[in-house]
């Protein structure tokens, strides 16, 4: 393909030279015609020089890249890191909007956050556009230079300006774009030092899939999990109806490091140690509640100490659930039934209906609960629990994504986050555009030197 383009360019240069020689040989005393012939001959020789200089131009890019310290891996890593932070910022401000919207200020906050989100989106679009352009130039640099040489070879300079500009832009941008992070770092280094603020994550952010099951490995729905480290809240999430929590690093995030997790269901609390993810950016963990049996959404049975479940079965439909279990009890203990306040429950112990010894009413994340306590002594028991219900109350809970902590953003003090976004907009939108403008100016100068707007090199290299 490249050889075909260069061969065609060479034939066009010969055509241009022959046309010029023919015009100069015509025995007519027309000065302008003679000058056109001379110009065509100069253009033909110059185009042939460009064709034979193709490999030199390619090697010149590699040599200047080496001298200037161009590193495509570093550039790719920089773009990836900044893009991840921008995606995390989008997710963080979405979380802030949801959290503050719970206070009734949703309209006001939306009007404030809308331009901020727009700025983040603009920065993300800019940096990804520059990255894609850099990749195209890196992959197609040889083809573009050959195409530019071909356009410069077309007689009568019909496409010479465009060809020279293509060659110049390809060479300058292939060398210059990977150096953009150095330019931005040099410009912003003083600003970061003076304001004492650096754009970076407080700690790494991972994706995660967590599952929560009861003592018989049945999914537990609408359980709340909170992560802590040194007493500081890292996140708060809710498991779905399948007992799963799936968190993407760009939509909420999860700590990559080990931390303490507190799980709560119907007011019953548990503490677990969540291991960190050392080699990957993904956490996969299953939490089992050893003394809990699930009845249904928001409805559970708590087993006291010294109880072993010998046999177990559960059946349910849209409005009721029946749980049958055979228990071995080693000492005086109890089991508790937690249901919503509007539910109807019947408890049978050894086929006899019994009443609770203790009844407590409480509210948990907007759900009105009744806790029923049934004492047991040592022995073997066959227990049947029948619960009839009409609906399941959703939890009234404020989700706190981990990325808010990872980005060190205070939900109720967003001025630092706004400054963060403005800084990122300058770093990833304004400065890249300024740098692109500088490269375009250099490209235009090189295009003129190549003969796109003048015949500077042609006059020096060709003496006719």
Poorly predicted segments: none
Largest sheet: 5 strands, antiparallel
- How many E-type strands? 18
H/E topology pattern: HHHHHHHEEEEEEEEEEEEEEEEEEHHH
Number of helices: 10
Task: Determine the strand fraction and express it as a percent band.
Answer: 25-35%
Spatial strand sequence of the major β-sheet: 9-10-13-17-16
Rg from Cα: 36 Å
Kindly state the percentage of residues in helix.
40-55%
Q: What would the principal axes of the Cα set say about the shape?
A: rod-shaped
Terminal Cα separation, in Å? 33 Å
Q: How would you state the average pLDDT, rounded?
A: 87
Structural class: alpha+beta
Structure, explained:
There is one protein chain. This protein is of the alpha+beta class and 464 residues long. Helices cover 47% and strands 27% of the residues. The chain contains 10 helices and 18 strands. The protein has helices spanning 2-25, 31-52, 54-68, 72-101, 106-152, 160-176, 180-195, 402-406, 415-449, 456-461, and strands at 205-213, 224-229, 232-238, 244-247, 254-255, 259-265, 268-274, 282-288, 292-296, 299-303, 307-316, 320-329, 333-340, 344-349, 352-354, 358-364, 367-376, 379-388. Strands 9-10-13-17-16 form a 5-stranded antiparallel beta sheet, with no helix packed on it. A 5-stranded antiparallel beta sheet has the order 11-12-18-14-15, with no helix packed on it. Helix 5 packs across helix 6 (160-176) and helix 6 (160-176) crosses helix 9 (415-449). The chain is rod-shaped. The mean pLDDT is 87.
